[in-house]
Amino acid sequence: MLIMTCVCTAVASADGIKLRQLQLEPVEQNWVINASYQIDLPPELSDAVKKGITFHFLTEFNVTRGRWYWFEEKPITANKNIKLSFQPLTQVYRVNVGALTISASTLEEALIQVGAIAGWQVAELSALDNGRQYDGAIRMRLDLSQLPKPFQINALNAREWNLSSDWHQFSMTPKYRMTGK
């Protein structure tokens, strides 16, 4: 049986995205992340969403282990894409996470859904060795490469468009306890 849970409440912040809660835990045969981000869009970005521009938010997660004789080992690297769009005809915001679509009546409700990451399977349990220390990092950002080309050019010159949380870094040591069946 594996008993390792990493629960942190963070104060990481940068330009409108703040990590509020992070939990990395073993569930069945996988490492699973549950996280919560607070997303506050500047007025310029709120207007862009309301005018029909689709935003792609990218959550990046990685776990590394330092080695004195070579580059860092990266046993876990995972990305999660979340899409936010507005349907002007129906006045509904849509959040797409993979095949799941969630509807919201306000931008605030939609941003809560974008920031709620639940049950994200990032790796199998065997990816991390028992008793070894690892360093993890997670962040969420607006993926500017997914914007329409005219907005990508505007994003290079406007600070408001570079929406990203800081990397939240943590250390962990998985502990296994064997139980008889």
Outline the secondary-structure elements:
Blueprint: E1 6-8, E2 13-14, E3 17-27, E4 30-39, H1 43-50, E5 55-65, E6 73-87, E7 92-97, E8 100-104, H2 107-115, E9 116-124, E10 134-142, H3 149-157, E11 168-172
Antiparallel strand pairs: 1-3, 2-3, 3-4, 4-9, 5-6, 5-10, 6-7, 7-8, 10-11
Please provide the count of β strands: 11
For the largest sheet, list the strands in their spatial order.
8-7-6-5-10-11
> Can you summarize the main beta sheet?
6 strands, antiparallel
- C-alpha end-to-end distance: 11 Å
Account of the protein in words:
- With 181 residues, the protein is mainly β.
- It has one domain.
- 14% of the residues lie in helices and 48% in strands.
- It contains three helices and eleven strands; from the N terminus they run E-E-E-E-H-E-E-E-E-H-E-E-H-E.
- Strands 8-7-6-5-10-11 form a six-stranded antiparallel β-sheet, covered by helices on one side.
- The longest helix has 9 residues.
- The N terminus is likely disordered.
Write a short abstract of this structure.
This protein is mainly beta and 181 residues long.
Which characteristics define this entry?
181 residues; mainly beta; five-stranded antiparallel beta sheet; 11 strands; 14% helix; elongated
